[in-house]
Amino acid sequence: MMWWSMETMRGWQTLLAVPSELLADVSLPEHLSQVIAHVLPPAFLLGAVAGFVSVLTGRLNNIIDRIRRINAIADDDAAQAHLRADLPRLRRRARLVNNSIYLAVGSAIFTTLLLIVAFVSAFLGRRHELAVGVIFVVALTLMCASLVTLACEVRIALSDLDHHP
Fold first, then answer.
1. What's the CA gap between 138 and 146, in Å, rounded?
2. 56 class by beta-carbon count within 10 Å (0-12 exposed, 13-18 middle, 19+ buried)
3. What is the distance, to the nearest Å, from the Cα of residue 135 to the centroid of all Cα atoms in its chain?
4. How many domains does the chain have?
């Protein structure tokens, strides 16, 4: 038994005030299966972005822990006082990773929006290719910006100052 019947479709049509001629030619189960096939790559992107945000959060936590350890150094500890000079660089790294997280989350939000638009368009029997294409480009652009921001942070992290205990 199908979970989606023509009566349900007519109910949605009435609720959303969709003209009947838009839904007359749509075979909803076939159309939905086609939409599901089209949204698989964005769904995988969403999973990848979630993993990437997790990695970025771990990097940010490590930077914050190091800042806290340096701030905990006593003022009279001459042996480790030179580490305080590293604080501005660490704060810059934290800012870059934080920006990268925001960009990646923005990418995830647009990817989720893409999935919503695709399914709502399918339910309404509307074409969705243009809107989904634009949203996907925005999501990928945000992800690219996040990766570039991470690359800037990694470059700073690989300086000699991070290799001291």
1. 12
2. buried
3. 13
4. 1
- The answer as to whether 7 is a domain residue is no
pLDDT digits (tens, 9 = 90+) for 48-99: 999 999 999 999 999 999 999 988 887 777 777 778 888 899 999 999 999 9
pTM of the full structure:
0.74
Residue 3 located in a structural domain: no
Cα torsion for 134, 55, 149, 96, to the nearest 10°?
130
Contact (CB, 8 A) for 150 and 99: no
Contact (Cβ atoms closer than 8 angstroms) between residue 146 and residue 83: no
Residue 17 covered by a domain:
no
The number of beta carbons lying within 10 Å of the beta carbon of residue 54 is 11
Q: Compute CA distances 112 → 44, 71, 129, whole Å.
A: 11, 40, 15
Task: Give the structural domain span for 39.
Answer: 26-160
Read out DSSP for the chain? Answer: --SS-HHHHHHHHHHHT--HHHHHT--HHHHHHHHHHHHHHHHHHHHHHHHHHHHHHHHHHHHHHHHHHHHTS-TT-TTTGGGGGGHHHHHHHHHHHHHHHHHHHHHHHHHHHHHHHHHHHHHHT---HHHHHHHHHHHHHHHHHHHHHHHHHHHHHTSGGGG--
